[in-house]
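[step 3/7] inverse_fold.run input=structure_tokens len=82
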């Protein structure tokens, strides 16, 4: 049993969507839509499949997206009136 506090890096060797081994890790500017808002996250690490354009986000990437999201930032400051 491995008891390590160090979290293992997520590695993906095949696309979960189409099974292609061409999926690869990308680090760069990410532009996308999250919670209905389009915004850019610089220096994001994620996996992208060139065959089916599936994108896989490791937990760290998800957190970075959430932290950079205008919707997320707003929800911390302003209470939703819905
Ligand atoms: Zn794919």
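[step 3/7] decode complete -> sequence:
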């Amino acid at each position: 049993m491995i008891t390590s506090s160090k979290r293992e890096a997520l590695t993906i060797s095949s696309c979960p969507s189409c099974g292609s081994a061409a999926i690869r890790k990308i680090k760069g500017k990410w532009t996308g839509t999250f919670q209905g808002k389009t915004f850019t996250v610089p220096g994001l690490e994620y996996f992208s499949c060139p065959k089916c354009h599936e994108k896989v986000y490791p937990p760290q990437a998800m957190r970075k997206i959430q932290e950079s999201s205008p919707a997320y930032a707003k929800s911390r400051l302003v209470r939703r009136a819905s």
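[step 4/7] annotate
The radius of gyration is 15 Å.
The first strand starts at residue 24 and ends at 34.
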